[in-house]
Structure prediction request, 96 residues.
Amino acid sequence: MNYCKICGAELVDGKCPNGEHLKKMCLNCSFCEESDDSLFCKNDENLTAALEKVKESIPVGYEIENLSLKPIALKDPCKKCKKWAMNKDVVLKELV
Prediction:
C-alpha cells in the first residue's frame, strides 16, 4: 500500500485524498530571495521571458543597447508559479 508521506493517508490513484499539502508558491520556492523585508524572484527563466517581452514591444526601425532588467519586490508571494522549485530548507523547517 502507498501512503502520503506528509499526513499518512492512503493514496487514491497515487494521490493524497487530502489534497495538495504543499502549495507551489514564491514563499517556499528556491528562487525566492529576501532583501530589505521584501521578496524577489531570482529565476533566470522568468527574467529571460520578461526581457523577451520587452524586446518584442520595440517598434520596427529601433534597436536597444545595453538593456537589462532587475526583479522588483513580489506583490503576492502566495501565488503559484510554473517555474517553481522547492526550497528544501524552508519546507523542512516548517514540517519540523
About this structure: Residues 26-58+65-95 form one domain. The longest helix spans residues 44-56.
